[in-house]
């Protein structure tokens, strides 16, 4: 980065400090908020590029191959796989753990980085969240089909079955079921809540009646009310807080499938943190694997900038180093333990075994190759990053293969040793899963916004209502007038940074003083005025509150900080409902497990007492998170008064811009101070445009 050199000088008033380094923008070039909406929405509104249909045809064909393989396996039996003694787990669990790991990056980017207020996540979190959903769907295939008798898969659900035999709640495999299903559900809720404002944007931009209806239903009638935003922001924060421990718990629980066994190579306490770091490592790599081509073909270089790629590469380098450390510690622990079985397993793995080649493919792809990201050019050159993350994804698949197959193929007795030979069903099922994943990604790009528009608008320089925006180019140039080298090309391509809108977009026709609504009552609902930006709207709301108006609301395309207080609203009560959901889930988990395992179907596992609670903790945790997530979703909908598919303000000719780039202030007729003519005049005196009284 090229910046001016500053020196500190002593003055009679104390030392002067150098100016801060130039601030690199997260998003380049949009002239206003509407351009963000237009650029992202047009991906779903216009016909797809010429390559989209052939690619979809190819991935759909691969998906059909996976369906064929699964159908053949279910109708014939699991013997069609190459899995056999001693390698009883092979491609099925390898692919299962691989896809679970891919799903970790979405929750990390969305939840953990949100809690740490890392604003660079805003351009990529939607894409990552979608990949989480799709990866977990691919992983869910294997627990269903590898039981053999697919029609009995419902036995894994805690319901009474025909023999009145309940699940073993002390089994890591059942912990797996609860962990993954909870992770999928909470990720889906988190994804959907984040989509709601953008679905409202697609609804208001829709030209056809069908799109208006579909996105209107999905958006639940969202219109950007500050009364709703205050609940929405808290709900998003609650779900981020709930999702964060899931990142650590899900792959930790998956690792318990191995770590709680006595198999050499599996029985180690390092597996939970090792699996979590590896999942984040592989998840970030897959996000870049798909995002870099999408960024190029959809011309999103100004939203998903080199800075985003650079930071994600740093995550990959850091987690790859942690994974490499775990590889070395596995070897050290095997040697230091003095167990001949452990040492033989790792000696066979790294030096003289049948699958040593797989081990060194894993080491090369996961430890050695990512070290090139120490070099800035390697992190900021998209085609090179794409090449490196391809190696990382290959290496992460081989990591799971090495852990599972290479640890099993040498049993305790040399007479039991054997190798795994995948069949055509193994290969076709694995390829079909990749086809399913990329098919879902393509459909997502076609149907839904791949960038979180509302969140991107909120991080634009002009979105801050409390401060001033620098002049064009000031915050990305150093004091010597030069651009940072990594972003010089971006500055040349997309121009100066965003500037605040100072005028309201004119309407082709004059807005009438009284706007009727279809089937209206004749009485006024309230008065509405449009303002140029968040700062003007915030000032107008404060003035209206000071003038004695109490039934105020502001309507904005993103959450404007300070607006809640400006219209006289207090903090949301939603956390109370989240807490109630968490306590409900914990209570249900306690009753379920103790009733079944200690009373109804008492089972001794590992010589422990019926009432030993330590093994119940994973299900305690997962059900607490699950119920809290559901309560958060339903309380958000209830507190916002949604769904509300028609609102009197919809009749106002410019109000449809409230989800795109418009800022509106309303005074409701039930306000004691409301008088149609006087209130209109007051809003006009505050600088409002397109002022009108809307019929109820």
Describe the protein.
The chain is mainly α. The protein folds into three domains: 43-160 and 169-459, Formate dehydrogenase/DMSO reductase fold (Up-down Bundle), CATH 1.20.1630.10; 514-571 and 643-695, no CATH class; 574-639, no CATH class. It has 22 helices and seven strands. The chain has helices at 33-45, 52-76, 91-102, 104-115, 125-145, 172-205, 209-218, 226-259, 271-297, 306-337, 340-352, 356-368, 376-379, 382-408, 424-447, 453-459, 488-494, 534-546, 563-566, 574-600, 617-639, 676-685, and strands spanning 9-11, 14-16, 514-515, 524-531, 552-555, 663-668, 689-695. A five-stranded mixed sheet has the order 3-7-4-6-5, with helices on one face. It has a two-stranded antiparallel ribbon with strand order 1-2. Strand 1 and strand 2 form a beta hairpin. The longest helix is centred in the N-terminal third of the chain and has 34 residues, at 172-205. Belongs to the NrfD family.
Q: What's a concise summary of this model?
A:
It is found in: Cell membrane. 56% of the residues lie in helices and 5% in strands.
